[in-house]
Amino acid sequence: MTALEKWWILGLVGCCVACSGAKEETKAQPANPYYSHTDTLPLRLSDKVWKSVLSGGVYDIARQKSTEQPFNNKYYKHTAKGTYCCAACGHKLFKSTSKFASSSGWPSFFEPAAPNRLLYKRDYTQQMERVEVLCGRCTAHLGHLFDDGPPPTFQRYCINSLVLDFVAQ
């Protein structure tokens, strides 16, 4: 099997996974062969590849570290039970049981789905020191971490809706 045939098959599998359930909402383009809810291996792709497989909004936030508008985004007031995944690669990031109403304008969580799901990086932009939160698989920019969350962790993962997909329980 040639590399091109493998790429094409992976694209079909990715599309079937992303589009298979009526309960699953996804923002990643169906042609994204790197999107998987089960693969946890690190994914390091060029900016050119990311630009070709992500929608404009997801690309702007995940790769260019943009931010969506507060209070007017898909998952801010979302209360369904399930799992929030990275819209760029499908990596499971947060369980709905860790989501809380923070009044920050963005979806907020008090802990990741598992310890190895996220990466953290010091962010000194906007004249302040913050902790940037990145996807542990593809290093997509997700949002920021603050120490003003509820018990038991007292942390608030402030995450952009556009870089999240939701898989209902």
Report on this model:
The chain has 169 residues and is α+β, with helices and mostly antiparallel strands. The longest helix is centred in the first third of the chain and has 17 residues, at 3-19. The chain has a single domain, classed as Peptide methionine sulfoxide reductase (Metal Binding Protein, Guanine Nucleotide Exchange Factor, Chain A, Beta Complex), CATH 2.170.150.20. The strands form two sheets. Strands 4-5-9-8-7-6 form a six-stranded antiparallel β-sheet, with no helix packed on it. The chain has a four-stranded antiparallel β-sheet with strand order 1-10-2-3, with no helix packed on it. Helix content is 18%, strand content 25%. The relative contact order is 0.20. The termini are far apart.
